[in-house]
Design brief:
Blueprint: H1 5-14, E1 23-25, H2 28-40, E2 46-50, E3 63-66, H3 69-79, E4 83-84, E5 87-88, E6 92-96, E7 99-111, E8 116-122, H4 129-135, E9 140-145, H5 153-163, H6 169-186, E10 188-202, E11 208-214, E12 218-221, H7 243-251, E13 254-257, E14 262-266, H8 269-281, E15 288-291, H9 298-309, E16 316-323, H10 328-341, E17 348-354, H11 357-366, E18 370-371, H12 375-392
Parallel strand pairs: 14-16, 16-17, 17-18
Antiparallel strand pairs: 1-6, 2-3, 2-6, 4-5, 7-8, 7-10, 8-9, 10-11, 10-12, 13-15
Helix pairs in contact: 2-3, 5-6, 7-9, 9-10, 10-11
The structure holds guanosine-5'-diphosphate and manganese (II) ion.
The site of manganese (II) ion has 2 residues, from loops.
Length: 393
């Protein structure tokens, strides 16, 4: 689950990290009021930022400065409703504009292969880190933190020095360690600050001082760990969830969209993986991972079918069910119902074995479904159907 910048910043603040203040506005009037408050408090400018769950908002015109209430109103009305990479902007963050001296990149990501937390830092902040990784890989510093011990002092120091943050060492150490603390506190997969910025501010006596702050924040939470953090579910943004993810979550299906053309409906995660492997071996590309779960009944099967067909790239479907708790005839009934409702006709190959497999076979035969006895045969037939559909299109 991806968090909006404003929510991600709240979590950082809760962990004691330095983040400039902000307000969230849903309307132009709210944005103007927030901007006027910050301007009246002595800030020369405010920054107005689109709250959408995609990167590169700055480049798309979704991050702009304003120096007056009128200007804030203009900027907010330009950004609200804007389309950024297919996402409609429904709210903006308004805050005092930072006077940026330098931009850095700092992120903590879950590194499954290393069974730890990987910290990545770079003095080349602000730009997309993927570009830095491609064009200038040595500009990215990598340090692994222990998932139990966190980031040790010497590691944080090494990272900060290598990033060129010697002049802000104390803040840099606190922030680097804070990212790991945040990861662990909320079971996050990613905590990314880009830019981590040195900003110039008026000090207590009016003379300028510099400090290090988290100017942007991106957090991705591990969905499987959400049960451990009841409050965090409320941060899910229903407007931003991909429609297929939302439909899957509501139907209780485990669904991951992939790039291929063969829709797969399977029960059990292991069987689903195997099915995908066999599709690949037969020369096809799976369009999704879909586990309908144990004991799935007809309505769930129909929901799964609608989900698969919502992907326009799908031109063949492979159904592979091993009945245990799940009853084969229930699934067959679900397929028959689903086909009656379905909006487009896609060739389907069905293999159902196990509990009530014989009853399923009778139902499928009566309904003229293409069936297969073995999984290999099913995969081959589905791949052939997909090829034929691809050639005809
Ligand atoms: P992203 O493009 O979606 O990653 O959005 P960011 O929040 O990272 O903003 C993009 C860029 O806008 C940053 O790298 C900064 O250069 C600039 N920016 C963001 N906030 C401010 C601000 O408060 N003041 C100034 N001057 N620039 C900002
Ligand atoms: Mn950013």
């Amino acid at each position: 689950m991806k968090l909006q910048e404003a929510d991600a910043k709240s979590l950082l603040v809760a962990q004691g990290l330095p983040v400039p203040e902000w307000a969230v506005a849903h309307t132009v009037a709210e944005a103007r009021a927030a901007a006027e408050r910050y301007l009246a408090a002595g800030n020369d400018k405010v920054v107005i930022k689109a709250q959408v769950l995609v990167g590169g908002r700055g480049k798309a015109g979704g991050v702009q400065l304003a120096g007056s209430g009128d200007e804030a109103e203009q900027v907010a009305s330009a950004i609200l409703g804007m389309d950024i990479k297919g996402m409609t902007v429904r709210k903006v963050l308004v805050g005092p504009a930072a006077d940026i001296v330098a931009e850095f990149y700092l992120a903590a990501v879950l590194d499954r292969a290393e069974r730890g937390i990987l910290l990545m830092g770079s003095a080349e902040g602000g730009v997309e880190i993927e570009t830095v990784a491609e064009t200038n890989p040595e500009a990215i510093i990598r340090v692994h933190a222990d998932p139990n011990l966190g980031l040790l002092d010497f590691q944080a120091r090494e990272l900060a020095f290598a990033m060129g943050l010697r002049a802000h060492l104390k803040d840099a150490l606190r922030i680097a360690k804070g990212l790991v603390t945040t990861m662990r506190a909320y079971d996050a997969d990613l905590v990314e600050i880009n830019p981590l910025a040195i900003v110039r501010e008026a000090g207590p006596d009016g003379t300028p001082v510099e400090r290090l702050v988290c100017l942007d924040a991106k957090i991705t939470l591990d969905d499987s760990a959400l049960a451990r953090h009841p409050g965090l579910e409320d941060l899910r943004d229903p407007d931003e969830e991909a429609p297929e993810d939302k439909a899957a979550r509501e139907a209780g299906l485990t669904f991951i969209k992939l790039d291929g053309t063969i829709g797969c409906m399977v029960n059990g995660a292991g069987l689903a993986m195997t099915t995908m492997d066999l599709v690949k071996r037969a020369g096809g590309e799976p369009a999704n991972f879909l586990d309908i779960g144990g004991g799935a009944r007809a309505d769930k099967v129909a929901a799964a079918m609608a989900l698969i067909l919502s992907d326009p790239k799908v031109n063949a479907i492979l159904v592979n069910i091993f009945g245990g708790i799940t009853r084969g005839d229930e699934v067959a009934q679900g397929l028959i119902e689903a086909r009656a409702q379905q909006t487009r006709d896609v060739p389907m190959v069905v293999r159902i074995v196990g509990t009530n497999g014989a009853e399923a076979a009778v139902l499928l035969e009566e309904a003229h479904f293409e069936t297969a006895a073995s999984l290999d045969e099913a995969a081959e037939k589905a791949v052939a159907a997909s090829r034929a559909a691809g050639a005809a299109a």
